[in-house]
Design goal:
Elements (H helix, E strand, L loop, with lengths): L1 H16 L3 H4 L3 E9 L2 E9 L13 E2 L8 E6 L9 E7 L5 E9 L3 E6 L3 H4 L3 E7 L5 E4 L5 E6 L4 E9 L11 E4 L5 E4 L8 E9 L7 E2 L9 E4 L8 E9 L11 E3 L11
Parallel strand pairs: 2-5
Antiparallel strand pairs: 1-2, 1-7, 3-5, 4-5, 4-6, 6-11, 7-10, 8-9, 8-11, 12-13, 13-16, 14-15, 14-17, 17-18
């Protein structure tokens, strides 16, 4: 209790030190709202001219929480070496791409839902992706979906928010083909792109055709080929590829290819 009172006193001093206009004049702020039943918590990511990606006392707000809170949502920043190491608001410089790691801790059993109610009004012209870091790395297109549901296990769950410029001129890769290689690895290749701002490629895989794609590469692919060794015999995989520019923007999907590692080891080419 004493620690919480001290934290509240320090946050009050920080708030008094800066006018309220310092917060309202941000270029944009995005609310990440986490709810379970009628209980919720939230944190705010944003950018502003004059801010930087480190600690800005004028715009970065410490998070006040204790073990009795039902849902705690915050940006962890122990590297800032501040009296607080978690923040409810994190404002960065307005260059792109930008990333924020945030955590959710809750004593609520069952499903929790992350929502971003003001995304389409705040950054309609930017690519926005939510990555479930501790849930297998699933990526969610935040413009295509309005929420993400996950099962709370009582431990801190990490997520990554990525905001980048949308690709307008960069075309999807063409001529994607796939075949089986040694030990049932899937070999993919496609036509090389020659756009001046092309930076690399991402490969996505699904167990069904047309949707449900999840990224398979951990780092950006710089060649126009890829080997997927994480396959199972007898299971059919559907692949697409995207192009990524120097600003972090991503193109649409290429054509889809289907590859099935056969139990007999027979090669197929689609």
């Amino acid at each position: 209790m004493y620690r919480r009172i001290c934290q509240a006193f320090l946050v009050t001093l920080i708030s008094i030190s800066f006018s309220s206009s310092a917060y309202s004049s941000s270029d944009w702020k995005l609310t990440l709202r986490v709810s379970g039943g009628e209980t919720y918590g939230y944190c705010i990511a944003g950018v502003k001219d004059g801010a930087d990606d480190g600690l800005d006392n004028a715009w970065d707000i410490p998070a006040l929480s204790d073990s009795d809170d039902d849902i705690c949502t915050y940006f962890p920043h122990p590297e800032w070496d501040h009296v607080f190491d978690t923040f409810s608001q994190d404002i960065k410089a307005p260059d792109f791409p930008k990333e924020w790691v945030f955590e959710v801790v809750s004593n609520i059993s069952g499903e929790l839902t992350i929502q971003w109610p003001d995304l389409k009004d705040i950054v309609p012209d930017k690519k926005a992706v939510l990555v479930d870091i501790d849930g297998g790395g699933q990526e969610i297109d935040m413009h295509a979906s309005s929420s993400f549901v996950f099962m709370n296990d009582g431990y801190a769950r990490r997520f990554l928010l990525k905001i980048s410029q949308k690709v307008s001129a960069l075309e999807p890769p063409e001529g994607l083909k796939g075949r089986l290689g040694q030990r049932e690895a899937v070999l993919l290749h496609w036509k090389r792109g020659y756009e001046p701002d092309l930076f690399g490629y991402n490969v996505y895989r699904s167990n069904v055709t047309g949707n449900g794609y999840q990224k398979t590469n951990y780092s950006l692919i710089t060649e126009h080929r890829y080997i997927d060794e994480q396959t199972e015999k007898g299971r059919t995989y559907y692949y697409v590829v995207t192009a990524v520019n120097t600003s972090g923007g991503e193109s649409g999907y290429s054509n889809e290819v289907k590859v099935t590692p056969k139990i007999t080891g027979k090669r197929i080419y689609k």
